């Protein structure tokens, strides 16, 4: 029961031991403990500030990335538009060139047809003239088979010439 009801001497020595312990702890333990706590607090604060800086940097990078994306899209659209315009120009040029060549071929074909037509007409005229001469020759030979018919025809022709 001595521990439950302590005497004054025991309280005195316990107080002195306690104070000595506090002085020893204050001199040797509190500073390193407080230094470690302070160091830990500083490292936590540094980590928080680094995290905040990293977050801000990430936001800036996101904004820069989004800006680069927009610029890339705009450049892509411009390139596609230029490609479409170039395609249309090439198609228009090719179409125009093909139309010009087609017109030239048609004109040459018409000219060729016209020349062949004229040549055919000239040949037909020459054949018709030859046939007409042959027919006339045969008819005249038949009609002028006798001398009397020949004289009669000559007289008729002379009469037509003087009348006209």
UniProtKB/TrEMBL annotation:
Q: Which residues form a coiled coil?
A: 37-89
Q: What is its main location?
A: membrane
UniProt cross-references to NCBIfam families, sorted A to Z: ATP_synt_b, PRK14471.1
One cellular component term (GO) for this entry is: proton-transporting ATP synthase complex
Q: Name the source organism.
A: Zunongwangia profunda
Q: What is the lineage of its organism?
A: Bacteria, Pseudomonadati, Bacteroidota, Flavobacteriia, Flavobacteriales
- GO molecular function list: hydrolase activity; proton-transporting ATP synthase activity, rotational mechanism; proton-transporting ATPase activity, rotational mechanism
**What's this protein's function?**
Component of the F(0) channel, it forms part of the peripheral stalk, linking F(1) to F(0). The b'-subunit is a diverged and duplicated form of b found in plants and photosynthetic bacteria.
The record lists the membrane-crossing segments as 12-30
Q: Does the keyword Coiled coil apply?
A: yes
Keyword list, A-Z: ATP synthesis, Cell membrane, CF(0), Coiled coil, Hydrogen ion transport, Hydrolase, Ion transport, Membrane, Transmembrane, Transmembrane helix, Transport
- Summarize the subunit comment: F-type ATPases have 2 components, F(1) - the catalytic core - and F(0) - the membrane proton channel. F(1) has five subunits: alpha(3), beta(3), gamma(1), delta(1), epsilon(1). F(0) has three main subunits: a(1), b(2) and c(10-14). The alpha and beta chains form an alternating ring which encloses part of the gamma chain. F(1) is attached to F(0) by a central stalk formed by the gamma and epsilon chains, while a peripheral stalk is formed by the delta and b chains.
Supply the name of the protein. ATP synthase subunit b
Q: Where in the cell is it found?
A: Cell membrane; Endomembrane system
């Amino acid at each position: 029961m001595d521990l439950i009801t302590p005497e004054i001497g025991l309280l005195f020595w316990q107080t002195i031991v306690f104070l000595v312990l506090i002085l020893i702890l204050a001199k040797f333990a509190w500073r390193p403990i407080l230094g470690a706590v302070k160091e830990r607090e500083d490292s936590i604060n540094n980590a928080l500030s680094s995290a905040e800086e990293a977050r801000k940097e990430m936001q800036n990078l996101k904004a820069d990335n989004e800006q680069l994306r927009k610029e890339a899209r705009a450049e892509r659209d411009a390139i596609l538009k230029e490609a479409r315009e170039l395609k249309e120009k090439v198609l228009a040029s090719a179409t125009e060139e093909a139309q010009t060549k087609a017109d030239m071929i048609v004109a040459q074909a018409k000219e060729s047809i016209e020349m062949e037509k004229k040549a055919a007409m000239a040949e037909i005229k020459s054949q018709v003239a030859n046939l007409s001469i042959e027919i006339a020759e045969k008819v005249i030979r038949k009609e002028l088979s006798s001398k009397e018919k020949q004289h009669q025809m000559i007289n008729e022709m002379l009469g037509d010439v003087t009348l006209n």
